Amino acid sequence: MADALRDKGIGTPATRADVIENLISKEYVARSGKSLRATSKGMRLLDVLNRVPVDGLASVELTGEMEFGLKQMERGQKSRAEFMKEMAEYTTEVVEKTRGFDYEQLYAKEPALGECPACKKGTVYESFWGYKCNQKETCNFIIWKEKNQRYLDRSLVADLLSKKIVGPVEFTTLSGTSYSTFLTTTEKGVFFSDENGTPTETLPGAEVKVLHEEQLPQTFLAMPGRLIETETAYMCEFGTPALEVVESEKAGSDSEKKTTKKKSTKTPTTARKVAAKKPKKLMARMPKTLCGHVVSRDEFRSFVITGMTPAITDFKSKKGRPFAATLHLKSNGNFEFKFESRKKLLGDEEKPKTRAKKPGTKAKVVKKTSKAESAAAE
């Protein structure tokens, strides 16, 4: 790797920047603050390339070797014909070995990950898109490799199938904000859950039971809202229904002016209804259990009306450490954490220490003297 970066570098700084932008545009990597992170799509591609029987296809050394060959040709150490012959031979090898291969065969030698939680008869094996039950004719159970922008690898899925609950597992939103939650398996797949394994998101095909609903005349986003509470989450639907605007003909002086003009043969329209365009719905959603904290209805109501929740001190990080934060409403309906000092909120913040005076010691008193007193003393 050191050689690839020193003598066999990956292009120039300009071309490296182009490569990074190309990877971002194809959604193989994504920006996360000042750094880059691999996306689920990029991880799947790299996994397939490593399984395809072509040496170096997913290796950084391959690009380094190509760059090194170009430098040798530039210095006269290798002829153009020799370099092009090497590239043609390698390209032919890649095409022959990758043309028409079966995706399923890439995972044929992988061992089973565990028992199928749906049919209880089959076993779960890895495939290109996910982890499926081998009883294809009678069972359609699958765990997709991507969940909420996170790649679910073999070890994580194996733990899920054996333990039923894993976590906290770190996820990242589209905006780059990290959060952690537990995962659980059911006969329908993998879902977010609390630490006891109770799903915190609605299962497919399940009827959504509304526990509470109320209208909010005004919200932080300067529009009315409808607060909805279900068994697993809070939601707020922003906006108002489309209104019909009735446009009438002008009266008064305008009608008098029309009498002087030639009468039209068309039938006058007394009123015309114009339907306003239906606004796009904006929805805010928050799970009832977030980072170990059970969100109350009052907290979510404050979040929608004021744009933030009160300070919450019992959040837990993915490592189980408590932290404090407020949840802030963004213009697109999403929420973000703004961290607070937990000690300060709980009243445990240490006061600045003051030096204690030693017993039996007296403070020195410095007497200021005037110029006249100094002269008299002399």
Under CATH at level 1, the class of the largest domain stands as Mainly Alpha
% residues in beta strands: 25-35%
Number of domains: 3
In spatial order, strands of the major sheet run 3-4-5-6
Q: From the helix content, strand content and strand pairing, which structural class follows?
A: alpha+beta
What's the structural blueprint in terms of helices and strands?
Blueprint: H1 2-6, H2 13-25, E1 29-32, E2 35-38, H3 40-51, H4 60-74, H5 80-98, E3 114-115, E4 123-126, E5 130-133, E6 142-144, E7 146-147, E8 150-151, H6 154-163, E9 165-172, E10 178-186, E11 189-193, E12 210-216, E13 225-230, E14 233-238, E15 244-248, H7 253-260, E16 271-275, E17 282-287, E18 289-290, E19 293-294, H8 297-306, E20 312-316, E21 322-329, E22 335-340, H9 342-346, H10 371-377
Antiparallel strand pairs: 1-2, 3-4, 4-5, 5-6, 7-8, 9-10, 10-11, 12-13, 13-14, 14-17, 15-16, 18-19, 20-21, 21-22
How would you characterize the overall build of this protein?
The structure is a single chain. This protein has helices at residues 2-6, 13-25, 40-51, 60-74, 80-98, 154-163, 253-260, 297-306, 342-346, 371-377, and strands spanning 29-32, 35-38, 114-115, 123-126, 130-133, 142-144, 146-147, 150-151, 165-172, 178-186, 189-193, 210-216, 225-230, 233-238, 244-248, 271-275, 282-287, 289-290, 293-294, 312-316, 322-329, 335-340. The protein folds into three domains: 2-101, Orthogonal Bundle (Topoisomerase I, domain 2), CATH 1.10.460; 106-193, no CATH class; 210-239 and 280-346, no CATH class. It has 378 residues and is of the alpha+beta class. A four-stranded antiparallel β-sheet has the order 3-4-5-6, covered by helices on one side. A four-stranded antiparallel β-sheet has the order 12-13-14-17, with helices on one face. The longest helix has 19 residues, at 80-98.
